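Tutorial, part two.
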Amino acid sequence: MIGFLISVIFFGQLSDWIGRLPTIAISYVVSCISLLLSLLSTSYLMFVILRFFQAFGRTGLTTIGFVLLMEIVGPHHRTEAGIAIQLGWTVGFITLALVGYLFRHWFWFQVAMSVPLLPLMFAYKFIPESPRWLLIQGKVKQLEKILIEGAKLNGQELKYAIKDLKMLTEQKPGQDRSTVFDLFRSPKMRCRVLNMIYLWIVNAFMYYGLSYNTNDLAGNPYLNFFLAGALEIPAYASVFFGIKKWGRRPTLTFFMLVGGCACAAIIAVPESISWLSTAFAMIGKFCISGSFGILYLYTSELFPTVVRNVAIGTCSMWARVGSILAPFVKELGKATHPSVPNVIYAVLAVSSGLLALLLPETKGQKMPDSLLEGEHFGEHEP
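Running the prediction step on this input gives:
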């Protein structure tokens, strides 16, 4: 998790400076090298260090890859793409239970977990750079080439001439290298990023806490882990329906409140009815998985292009704090009272769900590009 924490802010800032695609390439190289070397580990210390670099590289791939997708896909399909990409995580979660069951030795387990990463090298030539990032940076020729290829692929014709693109670029402020500090310079954006940071911390804390606790639930631990992952498929389906019909903010609030209430309900369940505790825990996992899926899409739409990656990177970095603390919640319950973890989950989920109501809705809105647009985003919300 330390590798995750450092990676998201480092690669988030780097991608806003040098571009999405080069940053993804660097992340991939770091992942592959550390991955292959970890199979040759001769000591536990060597293995841990290489695992750090694996997390460092892979986080750059996933986070920057998500932002790149959001900046390539048009507004009409952004919701579908933003939720569909989360299914990749779900498939990995589900198959992890099977891989763990079949491969008990650490070496073969690592091999099985590593091989799927290698074919990604062939995708690099088919993925374009972010058109929004190119526009903000004034790289008009590269932008025009991508737009022409995209229009041709979709059977359309490019409507803008090169001079129009230049004029459009000249009207865009904030072409300098924005940093994480720009997120905190203006009052509205500062409040939003702090709100989002809290939401990410709570979601990561609960997601990993509830996932780690599947071994303590009644029944086979591998089956429980599998079911916890499989629950994410209907969770994302529900999220997709919710954000299309009601929007990001009300759906996020609903999932957080229901998830918190499910965790609180576990406290009142007698120990003799273990299946009911398991059911409430799965409901909590269902809701937190859904809300976590919304956060990626919501954050990418809320912050402007010039700091979009660093905004997601900053939120994800703080989320790692929640992930790191999550395993200790169970120990806190043992040291104090078994109900303490669920009380914490309930309080955090309900408070973050209510705070989400302070954020502007992004459904059907044009994503902001400059810092000025980001500051005034949502002012004319109906």
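The chain has 17 helices and no strands. In part three we will examine how such features are distributed along the chain.
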